[in-house]
Design goal:
alpha/beta, 7 helices, globular, about 15% strand
């Protein structure tokens, strides 16, 4: 039996702007192809983590999509910290990778190059198909607390991938 479509949902789908915040700019999708896809799909804004240091990708997408491109950073660096030293390295605010990330995020937010930080993998212990990528980090770890502070300072955002375990929820509170 087919699910019944709520007529209000159909109306809202036409009127309500869509933001795709799990969009990953890449060399496989040109900025003009991304713009065409967004226009055809009714997506007004698209963004996600862009590999830090890939300034040409940021520049090209920003030029083509204008305010429709929402760049954020941090995913690559925190994944690097995790793969270098595990959960302890990712949680450690004094880890050189984390320290460099915090400095760069602040510079990028201040300059307007990014709008936020993410997607940070706080808890993907059951949701990642790759066992080497699975982790569970405290949502209130010292490194994460510093990220909270810098995004608040600039009115930016922080996105997480987090399974809703009771301890992670309590840490978020």
């Amino acid at each position: 039996m087919a699910a019944e479509v709520n007529p209000d949902s159909a109306t809202l789908a036409v009127e309500l702007p869509i933001a795709d915040l799990h969009f990953h700019p890449s060399l496989d999708l040109s900025p003009s192809e991304a713009k065409k896809w967004m226009d055809e799909s009714g997506v007004r804004w698209a963004g996600a983590g862009v590999r830090r240091g890939d300034a040409s990708t940021w520049r090209d997408y920003s030029k083509e999509l204008g305010n429709g491109f929402i760049a954020f950073a941090g995913q690559t660096e925190l994944n690097h910290a995790y793969f270098e030293g595990g959960v302890a390295a990712m949680e450690d605010a004094k880890n050189p990778i984390v320290s460099a990330l915090l400095t760069q995020v602040e510079e990028d937010l201040k300059a307007g190059r990014i709008k936020g930080v993410g997607e940070i993998f706080v808890n993907n212990s059951n949701s990642s198909p790759n066992p080497a990528f699975r982790r569970k980090v405290r949502a209130d770890a010292p490194s994460i607390r510093l990220l909270y502070q810098v995004v608040v300072k600039y009115g930016a955002f922080l996105t997480f991938h987090m399974e809703a375990d009771s301890d992670n929820i309590a840490e978020m509170e």
